């Protein structure tokens, strides 16, 4: 692996870890306490499933950032990196709305602009690097589930 690729991989991991730590600080212990006590729809994952989804999300982010950092110079490259960082920040903000503020209402409505941001990133990635876009695609599918799940949480826990 070339020196630049190692640096790019470490940067992608570092950015992801930094946001994960910030997200953890913003959410506190709500996952083990508040989240375990609220009413869940029948299609909700068990707690261990949420940890797997979170791990896969950060792994996906690392791959996307790594691929973008290694891409040839292009006018879209910087924009796509910032959109990806915006997606990571938006995810942590959503975690704050949901876990930090313990609000199913804010979490539901917060998913709408977040999903639009991820969709814009996906469309832009399709034009830039199709493989990287397809790495993001399962997350778009996940967001459909997430919107339905969060809506049900909101209705069930009014």
Description of the structure:
- The protein has 158 residues and is mainly α.
- The chain has one domain.
- Helices cover 83% and strands 0% of the residues.
- It is built from 6 helices and no strands.
- The radius of gyration is 16 Å and the shape is globular.
- It starts with a helix and ends with a helix.
- The model has no long low-confidence stretch (mean pLDDT 94).
Would you kindly provide a brief summary of this structure?
Keywords: Membrane, Transmembrane, Transmembrane helix. With 158 residues, this protein is mainly alpha-helical. It has six helices and no strands.
Mean pLDDT rating: 94
Contiguous uncertain segments of 5+ residues: none
Q: Which geometry do the CA atoms define? A: globular
Main sheet record? none
Main structural class: mainly alpha
Number of domains: 1
| Residues in β-strands, percent | under 5%
- Radius of gyration computed on alpha carbons: 16 Å
Our measurement of the CA-to-CA distance between the termini, rounded to an integer number of angstroms, reads 53 Å
How many individual helices? 6
Q: What is the H-and-E element order? A: HHHHHH
What helical percentage do the residues reach?
A: over 70%
β-strand number: 0
């Amino acid at each position: 692996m070339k020196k630049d690729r190692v640096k790019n991989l470490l940067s992608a991991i570092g950015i992801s870890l930094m946001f994960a730590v910030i997200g953890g600080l913003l959410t506190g212990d709500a996952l083990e306490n508040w989240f375990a006590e609220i009413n869940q729809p029948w299609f909700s994952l068990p707690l261990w499933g949420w940890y797997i989804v979170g791990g896969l999300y950060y792994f996906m982010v690392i791959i996307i950032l790594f691929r973008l950092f290694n891409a040839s110079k292009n006018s879209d490259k910087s924009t796509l990196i910032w959109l990806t960082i915006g997606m990571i920040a938006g995810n942590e903000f959503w975690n704050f709305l949901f876990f930090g503020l313990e609000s199913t209402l804010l979490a539901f409505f917060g998913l709408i602009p977040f999903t639009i941001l991820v969709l814009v990133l996906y469309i832009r990635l399709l034009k830039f690097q199709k493989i990287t876009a397809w790495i993001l695609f399962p997350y778009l599918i996940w967001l459909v589930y997430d919107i339905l799940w969060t809506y049900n949480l909101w209705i069930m826990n009014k």
